[in-house]
Write a structure and sequence with these properties.
The chain has 362 residues and is mainly beta. It has a single domain, classed as Porin, CATH 2.40.160.40. Helices cover 5% and strands 49% of the residues. Strands 1-2-5-6-7-8-9-10-11-12-13-14-15-16 form a 14-stranded antiparallel β-barrel. It has a two-stranded antiparallel sheet with strand order 3-4. A hairpin with a 2-residue loop joins strand 14 and strand 15.
């Protein structure tokens, strides 16, 4: 009964009816946080990738959820660009990258009790080529997680006399640690396919990343209450993202999805971004002035519509999204979920024109 009342109090303060103990960190722009989706995505697309992200949620209801993070990933044997001739475009020389590593940091804080978590993730992925255009990757991730809460700021049902609130009344709870640290582990597998356009302006490329992962397979113990037997449930993730160029146009479609199952909770997000490429390639130097702008719409089942904007300029990108609440909570939130923003840099420049690949592995 005490555990149930504690969960009720946390949910009351956070403004949501979801079971708080079963919810992991997550972002609406999930494609920008690979370490939270699948360790096998580490270094899957770029030689170097670095990003920061911030999310603000439920400000219209209560003390807002604030979640932020930063990550960096790199392949241990980097590829490079070389000049094929005085008047020819540069050629991307793809190295035989067998390994990649990543380091990421995420933190969040929610509710009047400042309940939050901070985690540092170390990811490692290895790649196995299947054919000239596809590969299989396996990833492992080790994390160190800190969770904390300020009990002095919590309000419990037992402190209501029936007509008024009395902070001096017994809360009916036996607290455990208000700050504890535990190790956490995850693993996953992903399939990657990439077909580049073969001539300037053809826009006939196709890319895909599809995978599955398992988080919390050690089921770490949670210690907010004395003598609790609560453990963090394992989380199963299925995901996919694609990029499909529409030939002989400046438009590409980027559909994606993610499904997460953790104990009784299931979250499914799916949608698509439409990207428009503007400015053109340099035919002789290989340096692109090409950039892209994208607009996307996604749906998180029984919760929210997500609208996003993306601007990519050479190897730099910035993205903004906003959640419009569609669940029963919209009565209190008036539909206002919250904004999210990220900034990203990758190398080499993904828009640098590629005439041909010299190696058979992506």
């Amino acid at each position: 009964m005490n555990i149930k009342k504690t969960i009720f109090a946390f949910c009351l303060l956070s403004g949501t009816s979801a079971a708080l103990f079963s919810q992991d960190l997550h972002f609406s722009q999930y494609n920008q946080t690979p370490s939270l989706v699948n360790p096998a995505l580490t270094g899957i697309s770029n030689v170097l990738r670095a990003s920061v992200i911030y999310k603000d949620q439920w400000r219209s209801i209560t003390v807002p959820y604030k979640t932020y993070g930063a990550s960096v990933e790199l392949k241990f044997k980097g590829s490079n660009w070389e000049k094929a001739g005085q008047h020819m475009t540069k050629i991307y020389k793809k190295a035989f990258n067998r390994m990649a590593g990543g380091l990421s940091f995420y933190s969040d804080k929610a509710g009047d009790g400042n309940m939050g978590s901070t985690q540092v993730n170390l990811s490692l992925a290895t790649f196995v080529p299947l054919n000239p255009n596809s590969s299989l990757s396996l990833g492992l991730q080790g994390s160190l997680v800190q969770k904390k809460v300020d009990y002095s700021k919590l309000v419990f049902p037992d402190q209501y006399s029936g007509t008024t609130y009395d902070p001096n009344m017994d809360q009916g709870e036996t607290y455990g640690a208000n700050n504890f640290i535990y190790p956490d582990f995850a693993g996953g597998i992903a399939w990657s396919y990439g077909y580049n356009e073969k001539s300037i302006g053809a826009n006939n490329e196709f890319r895909a990343n599809v995978g599955a992962s398992l988080y919390h397979f050690n089921q770490p113990k949670q210690k907010f209450l004395v003598d609790t037997r609560e453990r963090l449930s394992m989380k199963y993730v299925l995901h996919g993202d694609f990029l499909v160029g529409i030939p002989n146009t400046n438009v590409a479609l980027a559909p994606s999805y993610i499904a997460e199952i953790q104990a009784p909770s299931t979250e499914i997000v799916g949608g698509m971004m439409v990207k428009y490429y503007f400015s053109q390639d340099s035919k002789y130097t290989g340096y692109l002035k090409r950039s892209a702008v994208g607009l996307g719409a996604y749906y998180r089942n029984r919760d929210a519509m997500i609208f996003s904007f993306l601007l990519e300029y050479q190897q730099y990108a910035i993205g903004v999204s906003y959640d419009l609440n569609t669940s029963k909570l919209k009565t209190a939130s008036t539909g206002r979920g919250g904004p999210e923003v990220f900034i990203r840099i990758v190398t080499p420049n993904p828009f640098l024109y590629q005439k041909k690949a010299k190696a058979s592995f992506i």
